[in-house]
Write a structure and sequence with these properties.
alpha/beta, 5-stranded parallel sheet, two-stranded antiparallel ribbon
Length: 310
């Protein structure tokens, strides 16, 4: 009887969808659990949205237990388990990661945790592109306030500081946390996937992961997207003049800005101006966190210097 639980928690913008669609399903002896299943989604929403004061671990376990395999490795994969991306925007700094870690541990105290991180400057640009895709209207310097002393800005710098997050995970799941840099996947996918499957406890299947870099959005495209978003009602801009495009997200209907659908077809080369506001803000974010990244590398042996984290 194999009751092993592995939980892949993200981060966002680190190829989670690619792994879920093209890699994890090919791994032998793995029972893959994703939010596409309604009951799995209910379990994930309980874990990620319920305050730990009110969290009922027994109810969450009851929901997910019927989908667990007794003779395979149970792999739960959801980037939302590293904190919903817009919580910090809507609640001025909070991202609920502490509650999520508490709730995971309450249900699966012996779980293995997989966390994929990404160099903060590249992560910030990719995150900002996603923010605009969902209807955001703030310029990047107002979204990521590097001078916010109290962590109460729309997207506080703490969201990009991986050190305390990694420490908390390692403290709650000692010896059962795998942290991998996204850059290793880009530069040496075979080594990345080998480390991942070894940790999961399965063999690396033959794979040919697609290169998902369809957007050609650059500085002008970012700015046009941001301005267009003012016109349409969406999750991140409920006061828009025009209705957005109706779309169902899970069990709920909402509206999206048309920008969500046109970004991937934007003409251009996708190169960010190194002297523009987007690139300089991202670069300053990385400079601010270089010291933390060096400590993170020292404690977790991630070879981050090779990828320019410090």
């Amino acid at each position: 009887m194999n009751n092993e639980i592995v939980i892949h928690i993200g981060l966002h913008k680190t190829a989670s969808t690619t792994l879920q669609e093209f890699f994890f399903p090919r791994c032998q002896d793995v029972n893959l659990l994703l939010a596409a299943n309604r009951e799995v989604r209910s379990f994930l929403e309980l874990i990620s949205k319920r305050d730990s004061i009110y969290f009922d671990a027994g109810k969450a376990k009851e929901i997910i237990s019927k989908h667990l395999s007794g003779n395979k490795i149970n792999l739960i994969s959801s980037e939302g388990l590293s904190g919903r991306p817009w919580t910090a925007l809507l609640e001025k700094g909070l991202d609920h990661r502490s509650n999520i870690i508490h709730n995971i541990k309450a249900v699966f105290p012996e779980a293995k945790i997989v966390l994929i991180i990404r160099r903060q400057d590249k992560y910030a640009i990719s995150f900002y592109r996603e923010y605009l895709k969902w209807g955001g209207t703030k310029p990047i310097k107002k979204l990521i306030d590097l001078e916010d002393e109290f962590g109460s800005s729309l997207m506080p710098i703490e969201r990009f500081d991986y050190l305390p997050y990694a420490r908390r995970l390692n403290n709650d799941f000692p010896g059962k946390v795998l942290i991998l840099p996204f850059e290793l996947l880009v530069e040496n996918s075979s080594e990345f996937l080998s480390q991942l499957t070894q940790f999961i406890g399965t063999k690396t299947p033959p794979q040919d992961l697609p290169k998902n870099n369809s957007t050609k959005l650059a500085d002008l495209g970012f700015e046009i997207s941001r301005l267009l978003n003012y016109c349409f009602r969406s999750y991140l801009n409920p006061g828009g003049i025009l209705p957005g495009i109706p779309e169902k997200d899970g069990a709920r209907w909402g509206m999206r800005s048309p920008v969500h659908y046109i970004q991937d077809y934007w003409p251009g080369n996708g190169k960010i101006n190194p002297n523009g506001e987007i690139a300089t803000t991202a670069a300053e974010l990385l400079r601010t966190l270089k010291g933390k990244n060096e400590v993170l590398d020292s404690e977790f042996k991630l070879n981050l210097k090779e990828y320019g984290y410090y």
